[in-house]
Amino acid sequence: MNGLMMEYPLTLDRIIEHAGRMFPHKHIRTKRPDGGMHDYTYADLHRRSRRLSAALVALGVEPGDRVGTFAWNHYQHLEMYFGIPGAGAVCHTLNVRLFPKQLAYIVNHAEDKVVFIDASVLPLYEKVSAEIGGVQHHVLVNAPPDIETTLPNVLHYEDLIAAADDNFAWRSTDEQMAMGLCYTSGTTGDPKGALYSHRSMFLHTLGENQAMGLGLTETDVVLPVVPQFHAMAWGLPYACTLAGADVVMPGPHLQPAALAELIESQQVTVAAGVPSIWNGLYHELQAAPRDISCVRALVVGGSAMPRSLIEGYERELRVNVIQAWGMTELSPLGTVSKLQRHHLGLTEAEQLDIKALQGTPLGGVDLRIVSDDGVELPWDGETMGELQARGPWVIRSYFKREPTSEHFTADGWFRTGDVATMTPDGYMRITDRTKDLVKSGGEWISTVALEGALMAHDGVLEAAVIAVPDDKWSERPLAVVVRTAEGGADTDELRRLLGDQFAKFEIPDRFVFVDALPKTSVGKFDKKVLRARVADGTL
Ligand code: ADP
After folding, report:
1. Which of 115, 316, 457, 463 is the most exposed place for a label (fewest CB within 10 A)?
2. 41 - beta bridge partners?
3. Entry pTM
4. What's the gap in Å between 15 CA and the centre of ligand 1?
5. What helix, strand, coil percent values describe the chain, rounded to 5?
6. What is d(CA 533, CA 527) in angstroms, rounded to the nearest whole number?
7. Is any atom of ligand 1 closer than 6 Å to the C-beta of 326?
8. Atom 5 of ligand 1: nearest residue by CA position
9. pLDDT tens sequence across 199-236
């Protein structure tokens, strides 16, 4: 027998309508390119998002068309997050830090019909526009009216909004309609598209706002440092809007000093970004102290947050760090690391150990770890296996690709490509990505664990460990280290440090000191580049 409840489509227009009614007075503040603050409310966001939808329909955008955004985090980009899906179209966020070739590949693969482009990144887009076919309209955002551009069919964002109809009925009528498209950053191969539906994103929003998730409320002031072009800014724009939290957008100002100033002046309570951002902020605050104790949750994800950095924030700056794990393919949030009641009696050091784990699955996400031959492994905190996930906000296929056994199991799970352990009480620890593990003499070595230990040294700013081919052991770890300005760490010292925590065979044979580590477009250590440098003998 079926239940007798309403068929109520879970579409994102419900979220912005809710905010328009409940939180019309709450603020969205954006740091403008010139450094000033733009300030408006959810009432404005609501009105302008609807106008944007109307404008897109007037331009000829049809349900299911892809509309690209090439922009930093700001209020107009929030309007696109609602206005594009509200027109029945798909909001395809483009990473402004992509190599030109990849950018052209992605726009062409997605067949974007309209692209919104920030004036500040217009030259990057112009460089590849000749290789892009099919875009019918380019809409410039934050551009002076007399801006010169080589792009054809150019419109200005404010003109588009001004000419649009206020009486527009949202076109997102079916919760299964696609609403967003985001390509993986390609750390492990060609970029692949995750195509979200209204339903999946709505449920992700509810999942994210669970108390054991990020649990945003109306009392929060949220700073998404994670770019809107990276995994939908981890879903924060929707979670904030549903909760009625104030939003602070950094625009292009992502340097540590600018972030420190923004957090303090706006009294931010929740800030979210990748570890390299928080590493930079931590060192900035050491050099130029500011009071950021307003932050109740410093959310970090995208790569493992070194335990030493969590400790620095918690002990010295009195800031609560919350680690989260996710993937573009999971919309992206999968786990969040918060203490449970049975941890309350633990020592501070033991509690930090828990916070350094990737966390427990959100209600709505199933996780399991599996051996190479497909056998499910125990949750004992030690056994490592491939992490697999399923749930209503996990992809079942990549955009325009058949699901294959490389990414999906026969019994309906998504293969994350991460290697993890699970504790008996459900805390996941990423030990590596399958492609980054070092296999030495038949034993697996976790590069993530070595990197965390190295970065705990005062003299080490960043460290990446990669596998290098070895005749005897098949692979050996190599550590590539960036020292802090004060210097300090040398090979012997680092070897001694690791000797206290790791088996002999796990300690890298070679330590190379460099000025900077190559990073991917989303700020992760780019191990592909490091491996290529080893191969061509430059490392
Ligand atoms: P890409 O797959 O191109 O790197 P994503 O941004 O989707 O793009 O990255 C997802 C991956 O990032 C995960 O599979 C995992 O390896 C890594 N990751 C995300 N969060 C964490 C975390 N808190 N700790 C360790 N690794 C993480």
Report:
1. 316
2. 27
3. 0.92
4. 27
5. 30, 25, 45
6. 10
7. yes
8. 327
9. 999 999 999 999 999 999 999 999 999 999 999 999 99
